[in-house]
Amino acid sequence: MKFNKFIHVTLAFGLLFFLSVKGLASNEPTGEMLKRARAQFYVAVEDEKQIAPTIRLFERIEKIEPKYTGRTQVYIGALIALKGKHAFFPHTKLKWVKRGLAIMDNGLQKTPNDLEALFIHGSTCYYLPFFFRRGDDAQRDFRKIVKLMPHQMDTYDPKLITNVVAFLLENARLTDGEKAYLQMLKGRLKSQDPVNHQ
Questions:
Q1: How many alpha carbons fall within 13 Å on the CB side of residue 50?
Q2: Which residues does 187 contact at the CB level (< 8 Å), separation at least 6?
Q3: Which architecture, in CATH terms, is 2-157?
Q4: How many Å apart are CA 137 and CA 126, to the nearest integer?
Q5: 134 vs 44, 82, 121, 137, CA distance in Å?
Q6: pLDDT tens across 187-198, in order?
Q7: CA 92/CA 160 separation, integer angstroms
Q8: What pTM does this model have?
Q9: Alpha carbon distance 124, 132 (integer Å)
Q10: Three-state secondary structure of 117-134
Q11: Burial class (CB in 10 A: 0-12, 13-18, 19+), 37
């Protein structure tokens, strides 16, 4: 099932958004909470018991730092949609996924140019079963990430961008120009990786 593949891919990326955005000081409580919430998010993908505490953590971040409201709502919506994966009855599964998608969509409307929110929204939509009809939403998110990346990539850890680029090259429907840009970026990031120069 496509949604099960979502679990494996998100875990494979592991800490894709674990590293905080540059500009958030490591000793800043909100920055530390964001790190913890991102890490918990990926654990919650696999462990149903972690969904509720992770939602509470994102809600707390939203109250402390309202500028992250859109991003935190995207994460919360994705977590609520995950409840559908664990529900037993089909109508309950559907209820949770629909509720989560509505929250995710609302969060993305509040922060439409946030790479992190776009990636969580897009990858969640991408791995939903086809009958939710979210494939086009996922592709719009992915193409917007490509468009925004030149202006925002320097605010994220290069390893994070490398993972996003690899995901997009594998899963996004891109123009030849977009593919060429991402391949160039992939090469540039690889050449900057100190591991490749040892």
A1: 12
A2: none
A3: Alpha Horseshoe (1.25)
A4: 8
A5: 22, 15, 10, 5
A6: 888 887 655 544
A7: 35
A8: 0.81
A9: 11
A10: HHHHHHHHHHHCCHHHCC
A11: buried
